[in-house]
From TrEMBL:
This is SDR family NAD(P)-dependent oxidoreductase. GO terms for molecular function: oxidoreductase activity. Belongs to the short-chain dehydrogenases/reductases (SDR) family. The lineage of its organism: Bacteria, Pseudomonadati, Pseudomonadota, Alphaproteobacteria, Sphingomonadales. It comes from Alteraurantiacibacter aestuarii. It comes from the Bacteria. Keywords: NADP, Oxidoreductase. Coiled coil: none annotated.
Amino acid sequence: MARAFLARGMNVVLADLLQNHLDEAAGELGHTNRVMCLQLDVTDRAAMADAQQRTAATFGNVHVLCNNVGVSQRNPIDEASYEDWDYVMDVNLGGTINGLITFLPGMKAHGEGGHVVNTSSMAGMIPVPAFAGIYATSKFAIRGMTDALRLALAPYRIGASVLCPGMTQTRAMTAGDLYRKAHGGEAVSSEKRDPIEAGMSTAEIGEIVARAIEDNQLYIFPHGEFRDEVAAYFDEMLAAFPTDYEIDDRRREGELRRAKMTAEARAVADALGDVADGERRS
């Protein structure tokens, strides 16, 4: 994402839990003065507020916010402890919430428009094996959060997208070990693992994200191999709805009002893409 944004003339702030990761990223990006790197634990709200202040002092108004965080755990969902649940939910969901609460007020206040990208996962779209159950819980929540956020932010000319990647060339599989080490704990394994070599390149996904922001695209699905599986999952849900039923008139009226409000809000949100396209042409 940072590469794609820099290529479009943007300033970029990168945040990571570990300084050596930031140093590596800065080196790959050329140590340009358009990049600022901040060591940050996304679960630390005070540190998040400090990051916002340092960002504003260095680059001014924030226009694009990417809450790109993901950790998992090893215990199956039916055997997981409170610690397992708290760890994953605090980082994945709590870290995303902290990013929103910290940065959205300024983005809304400056009135210049913008965009938010929240990273979910294909594990936030389809069922997953037991070992990824808590991770999927957090990523389903982020998907639902972004659906609602898109409607709420549209009046401020701020779009919202949810990124749902599949296998990607990152070190996400070792994130739990790194987090525990950074917090003074013992890693479950000391084995050094490389990025997921079979995954899609981060450069390719970064370009896909940048184009999705430009087009105000709600769902970002880089991995086409999931299409049939998602379709089958949604077909199963649709088949579970009754087709022969009666509904109370008051209930019908209430649902029609809700559906109308949602449709109107979606129309405003979707129209931001038309505005952005017109601005690019001008």
